[in-house]
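re: ur question from yesterday

yeah so i grabbed the chain u mentioned. its 382 aa long if i counted rite. heres the sequnce exactly as i have it in my notes:
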Amino acid sequence: MKNAKELLDKYLSGQATSEEKALVESWYLQQGLPPSDLTAQQMQEEYEHGLQDLQARLPRTRRLWPRWAAAAAVLLGIAAGLYYLAPGGQPAAPAVATYLPEANIPPGGNQAVLTLASGKKVSLADAPIGRLASEEGLHVDKTAEGELLYSGADSPADGPETYNTITTPPGGQYQVTLPDGSRVWLNAASSLRYPVRFLQHARQVELSGEAYFEVNKQTGQVGNAAVKRPFLVQARGQQVEVLGTHFNINAYTEEGAIRTTLLEGSVRVRNTPGQPVLLQPGQMAVNGGGQEAIRVMAADVNDVMAWKKGLFIFNNENIRDIMTRLARWYNIEVRYEGDMTGVAFQGNYQRSRDLVNLLRTIEQTNSVRFKIEGNKVTVIKQ
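ran it thru and got these structure tokens back, copy pasting raw so excuse formatting
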């Protein structure tokens, strides 16, 4: 933390070296920022988060998080070259956000629908705290923390499996503790289908969208022998096999590739009928599903886990990719006017905050403007 703060202070005081100034980059906005609607406590939290992220990135990247952006909870950086410099190298005056309304679009929250084996659907946002159902000797409860909790003896199924499904809408997220004690966090517009009782030899679930898993280690019984009871996740033709570990799977159809990131333990990833690959912590498996070969690469775990920590982190991403993520969380429909090739941004933003302030900040680059009509957001190339 000390190094990051010292670097920011040196830049702002004019004492930074040429190399240190290069880290801050020529696009550092020094005027025309929109007013902040944060409380003093929120500003301090954002500033500290910005410093923490900068400290983590300093040894391996040239990206930097300016102090004003961290304090104002706006984008913490803008891709170089995507705003215009006035004569003398000073930033040009920002565009006026003429289309954005005063009324805001609220963020998503804890919303999901539970579909029981009987076909009954339960809105978890509306359901009272307490017992929701009992199936096959297991109890299904909604906790005060907004979590779905299965409890009771997790004896293996001795007949055909029966399934429950939890589904989050756009603008929703939810956490569930499965019958075996494994915990799953679902991102927006996602679903998880799982047995009410897992089989003796394996535990298998089906994922659509994105989820983070913390899987319990378990053993089963085959004859007189105790065997490991693997946990299997099926997602768009890909299978992830684990024993006890922490990992994230992003399998949104609209994002093309399936990304499995390992945080702790080990997992095998295979796409039928391909050969499996074994991941180590900090690695990501990427493939497009089906017959495509799986690629293994180093993962930026901070970026992958940002959604679970309540953040958007944009790393020089195209505006279309950014808006795809915003659309899922704010439950909006996005349209485009003009060529968005090369329009990219980097920075972070709290998912708990409203949308309009973020869009106003992006408009400061003079690259795009936004128009909001109901839940429709139009991105207009400048």
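noticed a couple things. The chain has a mean pLDDT of 78. also The longest helix spans residues 40-57.
anyway ttyl
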